[in-house]
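Please decode residue identities from the backbone states below.
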């Protein structure tokens, strides 16, 4: 999709790298979890967590490779990628969550963790709202429109088509399609900023996408139900 867009509107390599992150990664947690709890029920967040882990793995591997390659700040190598991945905070958090329960009994803290986790969604959306900036959106309207058309409409439609062609039905395909309809991943703007991949454009796509997704996800919920 990015390549198709570039053919109609040439962009520099740094912007192309930022667009690849914006087109390819969905906000499956900060926006996805609260919306899934609202539309489908909190009991299905466990399915959304699996979707989010896949997004995280793509970001920490292919996303990092894309950013390094686009920035051209250093030669791309296995060592560089491993170094970046191993220092990536979400990766460290994921590893801690997988290892710690095997070392110590965390059951006494389960109730506290459940109550704490219930605040993550509202606080995440509030913090995202504080960071949204819309200055200069008119100059990038065509690029933003292409990114959001793909992210909010075409991407979930493709996932829906795949499930339909394979004959899969039920709540798992529904949650997967709904997660694909989420706006661009917030962390992709952080990576774009770190590597200088036109972070202003990435933030515009994220900010406008979050607002529009509140409408488009309602439409997708009606289609899926």
């Amino acid at each position: 999709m990015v390549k198709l867009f570039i053919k109609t509107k040439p962009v520099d390599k740094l912007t192309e790298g930022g667009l690849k992150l914006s087109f390819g990664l969905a906000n499956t947690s900060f926006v996805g979890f609260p919306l899934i709890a609202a539309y489908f029920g909190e009991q299905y967040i466990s399915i959304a967590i699996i979707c989010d882990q896949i997004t995280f793995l793509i970001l920490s591997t292919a996303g990092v490779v894309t950013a390094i390659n686009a920035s051209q700040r250093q030669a791309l190598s296995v060592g560089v990628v491993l170094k970046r991945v191993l220092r990536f905070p979400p990766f460290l958090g994921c590893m801690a969550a997988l290892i710690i329960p095997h070392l110590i009994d965390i059951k006494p803290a389960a109730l506290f963790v459940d109550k704490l986790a219930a605040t993550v969604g509202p606080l995440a959306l509030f913090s995202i709202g504080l960071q949204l900036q819309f200055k200069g959106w008119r100059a990038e309207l065509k690029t933003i429109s292409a990114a959001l058309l793909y992210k909010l409409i075409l991407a979930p439609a493709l996932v829906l088509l795949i499930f339909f062609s394979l004959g899969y039905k039920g709540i798992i395909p529904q949650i997967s399609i709904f997660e694909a309809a989420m706006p661009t991943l917030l962390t992709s703007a952080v990576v774009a900023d770190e590597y200088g991949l036109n972070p202003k454009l990435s933030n515009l796509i994220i900010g406008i996408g979050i607002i529009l997704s509140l409408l488009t996800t309602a439409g997708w919920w009606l289609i899926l139900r």
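Observation: Residues 2-224 form one domain.
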